[in-house]
Amino acid sequence: MDVLFLLKNTEGTQNKSCADKGLPSPCVFVVAVDGTDGHTLWERALDPEFHWAQCGMDEDTGTAWHCLLSHLNNITAINKYTGDIIWQQPWPTGLQSSLPVLSVPDQDGDRVKDVVLVASDYTQTQLVLLSGRLGTQIGSTVILDFTNVTSHRLHKVKNGSLNILLQKDTGVYGLALLTVAAKAKAGMNADLKDKNANTADGLVPIFESETVRMLRTKEADDSSNLLVMTQKGVVLIDGTKLQLQWRFNTSSVPSQPSFGHFNKDGVLDVVVEEDLGNNTKRIIILDGKSGGVLWEVSLLAAANSPRSASVYTTNSFSVFMFWGLLPSEFNSSESFNSDRRFYMLHPLYSNVLLEYSSVMDHIITFKATLMERGRHAAYLLLMGPDKGAEGTVVLKKRKLKQDVPFCKVLQIGTSGASETSEDIKEAFSRLRFSDE
What DSSP string describes 165-230? Predict the structure, then answer.
């Protein structure tokens, strides 16, 4: 897997400046680097200012675009394999700004997936359909009497229906994609294949609350369900019946939950980080079916700790990863804020954790991912200066199994385990990983 960087700089990685491309300085550089050794594959300079980018929107390499970028007053489609600009279009008239785009099934009959732009302010919400092949607007702008949308996503329910979910601080609302297409252009050839689609003319409330903060669609095995975060917990909603499945109340949830398989019932479980105050947090793994607590541990909430993650294995469970500091490992003679550890949990050995402590730099982002089917899982750490500071940015990639020999095995459960530290490390080393 290769990596795409977006940099704001006066010069790119290949000694070519913004001025060489006739652009104001500093400008935006899109740089693709080889995931094996980090060398530059291609580089593209674009006009500043940068607003957002979205890549990997279509796995079909035969489609007409691969990455979309919003910059200056343009939206630009770039081929992610070559860096070539496929099309560049000015912002649609009257559209002031936009959240990152939605990739939707072909609406105009040219066999290329299209794009929905969503822009919202305190007066209205606008939706604009763009051709994925040319970038031109399809039909007219759809205007909703709906304000202050902060997040959105395309949601497919089990019957095949496609809905655009719009989230604001008072709830989550659904709008049928068929409705958007029909309002934009009457008689449009919409290749949606959803005979049971929601055909309501307006927004349908899915979950209403005064404290909705984030929206996450439950992944993989049960994609129709919706996980909604509030300030006081998480709620799972059946995405087909739009009924509450379960609710888990907490004191505070500061970051988005993640998903993984703790048990082997085939339903994704939910990992929640609860803020307990006094620099303490609780990592809770909730059963995806019932919302009951399957596992938990309390950690010191060390500064600059990424949110939890997991990687699937071929044994129908996941390896879970999280950051913080076990209270038993805290050395009071050292600064708490500088002491942060990386932990791995094997569900079959839930009374122990592997602790890795060599990552001390400022972390910009962290991602766990599958690198080679059935064999290697890895994590990517992007490290560099804190926001607003200057310095070197480093991307670090490590296989999970590389860290196992250097980890400390820590007992966290009350029941004594018969396995030795060597047994636990061997169990981690034998794991094979999967993308399902």
Answer: EEEETTEEEEEEHHHHHHHHSTT-------TT----SS-EEEEE-TTEEEEEEPPGGGTT-EEEEE
Report which DSSP code applies to 87. Answer: E
Note the pLDDT of residue 415.
64
Quick one: pLDDT at residue 15? 86
In this predicted structure, what is the pLDDT of residue 332?
A: 60
Q: Locate 243 and state its tokens.
A: 């009924």
Do the bridges between strand 125-130 and strand 376-383 make them parallel or antiparallel, or are there none, so unpaired? unpaired
Given this model, what pLDDT does residue 84 score?
A: 94
Number of helices (H), then strands (E), belonging to the chain: the values are: 3, 31
- The 3-state DSSP class for residue 243 equals strand
The tens digit of pLDDT for each residue in 333-359 reads: 555 555 788 999 999 999 999 999 877
Domain architecture of the chain: domains with CATH:
1-90 (2.40.10), 94-208 (no CATH)
Show the tokens assigned to 200: 């309501």
Task: Please give the angle made by the CA atoms of 99, 105 and 109, to the nearest 5 degrees.
Answer: 120
> Residue 49 gets which letter from DSSP?
P
Q: How many whole angstroms separate alpha carbon 296 and alpha carbon 273?
A: 10
Contact by Cβ (8 Å): 259, 266: no
CA–CA distance, 286 with 283 (Å, rounded to integer):
10
- SS3 breakdown of the chain: % helix, strand, coil, rounded to 5? 10, 45, 45
- In this prediction, the residues of the chain whose per-residue pLDDT falls under 70 are 56-65, 187-201, 218-223, 331-338, 372-375, 414-417, 436
HSE of 379, CA atoms in CB hemisphere, 13 A: 28
Tell me what pLDDT residue 116 has: 92
